[in-house]
Design goal:
The complex is a heterodimer.
Chain A (H helix, E strand, L loop, with lengths): L1 H19 L3 H24 L10 H19 L3 H9 L3 H6 L4 H14 L2 H15 L7 H26 L9 H14 L11 H8 L8 H8 L4 H29 L9
Chain B lengths: L1 H4 L7 H20 L2 H26 L10 H21 L6 H7 L3 H5 L4 H6 L6 H19 L7 H24 L10 H13 L9 H10 L7 H7 L10 H23 L6
The chains are: A mainly alpha, B mainly alpha.
Chain lengths: 265, 273
């Protein structure tokens, strides 16, 4: 068991160091995430200047957008390409010969790469706080539960990303799969527009998927749109999605690995 | 190094066109070998835009306008940008590999061939998502056009706007990818930032942003001429005089892109230096 955790830690560290070697990535992530956040702020400030819409006023929307920035930077900045490339170029054959669990090793690497985005998140959030002065969490409990919800984003993000990467066993490129995933995630998580603005049938579709837990769940807890019991229920659903996708990924991998091709072989 | 190896006479337009066409046709042939890939990529291109369409539809169910722009006008804004960005994937997607080629010294043998390097690099790949993007972008543009009640009279202006938008976008992507000649790295980060910021900000009315952003996007990096200016002229938000700026911006962007790429080739010193 201890050996297993030591291996995980080694994968996390290596992945983190690999990401930190490319410092321009931080700047790029900050410009991209920060740019998107500023655009959202400009849009919603204009729209909410006349008063609240669908339960969001300018105060709550500022906090909502910053939470979206945090989760977006964590998820979109992680090293999904590294895993995909190894499947596409056949290096996965070497990974399969190593005496470590493939999925667990990739999860450790993925979490390591997500940790590398934390400096970007911290700089972005401090900048946003100074510029926009958003309201704090509705209560101390809500604050703690929001942090818990953000931590659960790590396994959730890995589950969704890993499952989508496994499609590379059947395709020759990853770019389209990544865009498809990011498009669905951006829309159904509420990053593009809060789910409360959607018609009820579309909200039902969104909540039947894992995506809302990336933005809608932490924002709802932070802003007090749900009480403590509701927040715990959302966290339970978020954790269940993480576990469910972990198990689902194992089943898919067992089937997908039979498709592995190395240099046309 | 590039100066020493470059052909002494500039290649004629017909020759360049022939090289470009042959290379692109070869890429299309290779696409047909991987149909699953094609459909995944094309669907991804469509999905991005379906969700942009959904975003606008959901938003306008709650608000009547955004900074004075109504639903169908915003659809035109998104549609024209999508057509332009999708076209870059179909016409010059290879420029995204400039950074990789510089890093690995793969520009070397392209310099020795009797065709412009930028054309050879641009045609090394086709972004298959572009098929879906262009198709759905045109649908959004047409739907917005009809909904905004524009009719058939301004169609020539629309066609000019599309041609200029595609030209500007291709030129700007090429220019920003050429930055990798000096700032070396495998990823075309600057071009990626350009596209990402465009897809976030330029699908919204410029009136939402501070004056500095408006000036920057009009006169420094003229991305506003890709979609905002033509659509604003068509829908009456700007006077028709602004339309003159669109082909001028296209010409300026092409000259800038070719100039920067040429300067990049001059500073290129292969790999290992």
């Amino acid at each position: 068991m201890t050996h297993g955790f030591a291996v995980d830690r080694a994968f996390v560290t290596v992945s983190l160091k690999r990401r930190l070697a490319y410092k321009t990535q931080w700047i790029v992530a900050l410009v991209l995430g920060g740019g998107a956040m500023l655009v959202s702020m400009a849009l919603w400030r204009n729209l909410l200047s006349g008063g609240a819409l669908s339960g969001y006023d300018w105060d709550s929307m500022r906090a909502y957008i910053i939470i979206g920035f945090v989760t977006g930077t964590l998820v979109f900045g992680a090293a999904d390409w590294y895993i995909a490339d190894r499947i596409l170029d056949g290096h996965v054959a070497i990974d399969l010969t190593k005496p470590v669990d493939f999925q667990r090793a990739r999860a450790a690497e993925y979490v390591g790469s997500m940790i590398s985005t934390v400096p970007t998140v911290v700089v972005g959030v401090i900048g946003a706080w100074l510029l926009f002065d958003p309201p704090g969490p509705v209560s101390a409990t809500a604050g703690v539960l929001t942090v818990l919800s953000l931590l659960l984003v790590f396994p959730l993000a890995f589950g969704i990303t890993y499952l989508s990467i496994l499609v590379c066993f059947w395709t020759k490129r990853y770019l389209g799969i990544m865009w498809l995933r990011e498009a669905l995630l951006g829309f159904f998580s509420g990053m593009m527009i809060p789910l409360a603005f959607m018609p009820s049938w579309l909200q039902a579709v969104a909540w039947a998927l894992p995506f809302p837990h990336f933005t809608a769940t932490p924002a709802a807890i932070y802003l007090g749109h749900v009480d403590t019991a509701g927040a715990l229920g959302l966290l339970a659903a978020e954790a269940a999605w993480g576990v469910g996708m972990w198990i689902g990924a194992r089943l898919v991998f067992r089937h997908a690995v039979k498709k592995v091709t190395v240099h046309g072989g | 190094m590039a100066d020493l190896l470059a052909p002494r006479r500039p290649a004629g337009a017909r020759h360049v066109g022939a090289v470009y066409t042959r290379a692109i046709v070869a890429q299309i042939r290779s696409i047909t070998e991987y149909p699953a890939d094609f459909w995944v990529m094309a669907s991804a291109g469509v999905m991005w835009n379906v969700l942009q369409f959904a975003f606008l539809t959901v938003l306008f169910a709650t608000v009547p306008d955004v900074a004075g722009w109504r639903y169908h006008e915003m659809l035109m804004l998104s549609g024209l940008f999508t057509v332009a960005s999708g076209s870059t994937a179909l016409l010059c997607d290879g420029v995204w590999s400039t950074g990789q080629m510089v890093l690995k010294g793969e520009i070397d043998y392209r310099i020795t061939r009797p065709a412009p390097v930028v054309v050879q690099v641009a045609t090394t790949h086709i972004g298959m998502q572009g098929f879906g993007e262009v198709a759905f972008g045109l649908v959004m543009l047409a739907y917005g056009w009809i909904g905004a009640g524009l009719g058939l009279a301004p169609v020539p202006i629309g066609l000019l706007a599309i041609a200029c938008a595609v030209t500007i976008e291709c030129a700007l992507v090429t220019l920003f990818c050429a930055v990798n000649f000096w700032i070396k790295g495998p990823m075309s980060n600057f071009a990626f930032m350009l596209i990402d910021l465009q897809s976030n900000a330029m699908v919204l009315p410029l009136g939402l942003f501070p004056i500095g952003v408006r000036l920057l996007t009009m006169f420094v990096i003229p991305v506003a001429f890709v979609n905002f200016v033509p659509v604003a002229v068509l829908t009456g938000h700007l006077s028709a005089a602004w339309l003159v700026g669109t082909p001028l911006a296209a010409l300026a962007c092409v000259l800038a892109a070719l100039g920067v790429y040429r300067l990049g080739l001059r500073s290129y010193d292969s790999s290992g230096h």
